Amino acid sequence: MSNFNLTGTAVIIGSASGMGRATALAFARAGVQGLALGDINAPGVKETAKQTEEVATNPKFAVTASHVDVRSWASVDAFFQAAVARFGRIDYSVTTAGIYSMHGNIADNDLEAYDNIQNTNARGVLYHTKAALQVMLKQDVIVVQGTSRSRTLGRGSIVNVCSGAGITPPPGTVEYNASKFAAIGITKTAANEYGGSMIRINAVCPGPIDTPLLERAVSASPELRNLYTDGTAFKRFGDVDEVADSILFLVSPAGSYVHGTSFIIDGGYLNMA
């Protein structure tokens, strides 16, 4: 569980399950006043909203749950406009939305699958980042008191959940790897373009994390499961709460000098590769 104390409003796309749900719960526990949740899985995101109401610590807490399709700019833009209309400001914006597939090595790869995963994993990050920036650029800069001096939090903070596969690509998943390289590239480009506007932008790159997405990938292959767990220093999958807490660090005053980074959360998986 996070020990961070946050105020303001957070947007989380991909919050129906897994890392997105854990992040929504972490923000609610950390004290945000507003939380706008979106996912293509409408029943799932409504359940997440219900759970955040049960753990929220801010007495003025309010949450919305909406259907959003990250492959559609119109859908993402409408989601953000609704969040601004409801809460007035977006201080933290996170997307965890993504899909995974394994369609073989490049010579035998399914090109249709390639296009499909790019639309979700890469285009989705672009749309999320674009929409968040359009809102945050219009917002005032926030300054808080640090331990020894005031600390500028800026106009907002954006976190795109990418993957360690966008840093060191495993074989057999070129469509997934390429989408995550693109997602990291989009994030770093945005950081270069908008740091001077006092908007912090970072990528989170998880390794093998215990999520429904990973479970589907390894359920038919004990060998793959062992490959992932044995490849970490701790011989286990990461927990979704460990990712959520890292996201909270990045958006919090504690992370006020962290910008344009690929924050790896993988139990040493890439280091041991």
Rg over CA atoms: 18 Å
> In the CATH hierarchy, what is the architecture at level 2?
3-Layer(aba) Sandwich
Low-confidence stretches at least 5 residues in length (pLDDT < 50)? none
Shape: globular
Q: In which range does the helix fraction lie? A: 40-55%
Q: What fraction strand?
A: 15-25%
- Number of helices in the DSSP assignment: 9
Give the spatial strand order of the biggest sheet: 3-2-1-4-7-8-9
Supply the CATH class.
Alpha Beta
Mean pLDDT: 92
Structural class: alpha/beta
Instruction: Determine the N-to-C terminus distance.
Output: 29 Å
Largest sheet report:
7 strands, parallel
- Structural domain tally: 1
The CATH topology corresponds to Rossmann fold
Q: List the secondary-structure elements in sequence, H or E.
A: EHEHEHEHEEEHEHHHEH
Task: Find the count of extended strands (DSSP E, 2+ residues).
Answer: 9
CATH superfamily: NAD(P)-binding Rossmann-like Domain
What does this protein look like?
The structure is a single chain. By secondary structure, this protein is of the alpha/beta class. The chain has one domain (9-272): 3-Layer(aba) Sandwich (Rossmann fold), CATH 3.40.50. Helices cover 44% and strands 18% of the residues. It is built from 9 helices and 9 strands. The chain has helices spanning 18-30, 42-55, 73-87, 111-136, 174-194, 212-218, 222-230, 240-251, 269-272, and strands at residues 9-13, 34-39, 62-67, 92-95, 142-145, 150-154, 156-161, 199-206, 262-265. A 7-stranded parallel β-sheet has the order 3-2-1-4-7-8-9, with helices on both faces. Strands 5-6 form a two-stranded antiparallel sheet. Helix 1 (18-30) links the parallel strand 1 (9-13) and strand 2. The relative contact order is 0.15.
